[in-house]
Amino acid sequence: MKTRREFLRATTVGATAVSGIPQLLAAAAPTPPTAADTKTGVAPRVSAKHRNIFNGDTCVFFYNPVKWQPEGGPFSTKAIHRYVDELADSGIDTFAINANASRPWYPSKVLPHILHGYKRGDREFFRGHAICAGATTPAAVEKFLDEQVTFMNRYVDLLDAGVDWLAETAKACRRRGVAPWVSIRMNDMHGQRNFEGSYFNAELLRKKEMRLQRSAYSPTQWLPDYREGLNYERAEVRAMMFTQIKEVVEDYDFDGLELDWWRNALCCEPGASERTIGMMNDWFREVRALTERRAKRTGRPYTFGFRMPGRLETLKTIGIDVVTLCREGTLDFIAPSHFWRTSWDMPHDELRRQVGDRVAIYGVIEDGVNWMPTRSADDSLKRDMRYLSASRELMRGNAAGKLVLGAEGIEWYNFFCTDQAGLVGLDSDYAGMRDIWRLDALRGQPKHYALSDKGGMFVQIPFENIPQVPVVLERGWHQAFRLPMCAEPTDRGLELVVQVVLKAGDASELLLASFNGTWPTREHTRSGRLLLPCGALSHHAPANIGCDFGFPVAQVRDGWNEIVVENGGDKTITVVGIELAIRPKAMRT
To answer: Is pLDDT larger for residue 411 or for residue 39?
Structure first.
């Protein structure tokens, strides 16, 4: 089987911590792979059973004890098994559980873990992290400390009961036939506002000489110190991370390893030399050899891949050479994404051309839609960002745009944040994930598409794809926007509506739009409503207004679609966003 497609057709479907990091260099540094460790020819492909992957962070079971352990009492394994039951019942075939932030969050035996040195009820243990969580006033700090004690004591409940929650996650997955994978964050920066004092931070991250010095290049970037992560050019950093990876691969019952380079996109100093890139390639090959040895011992394939930005050339400038690793077979999969806000126009087709045919490419659905503010009809709920997991139509549209460009499956990231927010009228729709990877099942279903936008928090320049909106149109200007969509059947009573979102004060009498080459039309309806609601969020914020253009659903084609907007008036307008809906004609208002 020489190609990914041939393979897919053929398949069916701690407590004790190391006290000093320098010791890792001698005791735990990776050994170069031998001929017996590596394979010649094509690396193992990702099985067709891995099509619907759920990535849960280290706190995913612990955020909502009321939901996952409603009977109360000390936190127990019931919550873990109930969560995995929910995933299995929702069609998830693979659970990639995140094991770490900067420190391990499970009871690691080789590195100081997140609760190393903590005694139940010790509020002072968390004080150094308060500023990292945005708590700056005395009252806010005290509230934060109380909340942290309550939250982290759930982990202590499991430790006191002799439970390793990471091992229990794999056990719960095996019980339900869900493939257990582990996801390792490669440069988590949750503690970046207090490197020396936050309990989140690993020992090496506290040391300035171990951190990147040139990764933040502009004072206008969101949180410039968010770029000051671990420098993988340092042997100590590579040794520490290999120790973390080695433990979860060798000592836990997982079938796959994901290195998460979106937490964060920080590796080596920008402008990495060929020597530095070669050094990192060798390090990744050593990780691959580790997974191969594990596969040999268990008799089961051990999948290895990256979640990372989709701008591969930019990644290479910080030492991560995705193209080489894919083409030589070191990686089994890649999962290109944006940071927090989901991508709507990730060019999976172009990525396939770059990385070749030896890896699987997953489409990643993040929970944030874009930064276009919305509200409920009665103004009781207002959000600067919609949570995608509260809307099946948004879920379907985002998945369809990725699958139609060749993504082999879907990975969900931050899906649970909707639940975590605890907002009335917004809940994560777990059942909506079922069959999301099947393009044939998505056709004919209502969908909501959007465009990624500029600005706001969590924008990781220069690693994210460049957003298409907002854009200013002077008199007589026109602008093309493109978006991947899937073609729809014409016998289901569906319509295509394109909503051009303007600033509320912009005139639209001479606004024109066309879709995939249709003759430009001025016929539209101004509306303050979203094309489709997202939970209780149904309207635009007062600052914006939608202009709804209707087109035949037959105009939608598989792959890239083009929307052209023209300002035929004599005053400048601002296109804040472009959203599209495939919806029943009966929904017209």
So the answer is: 411
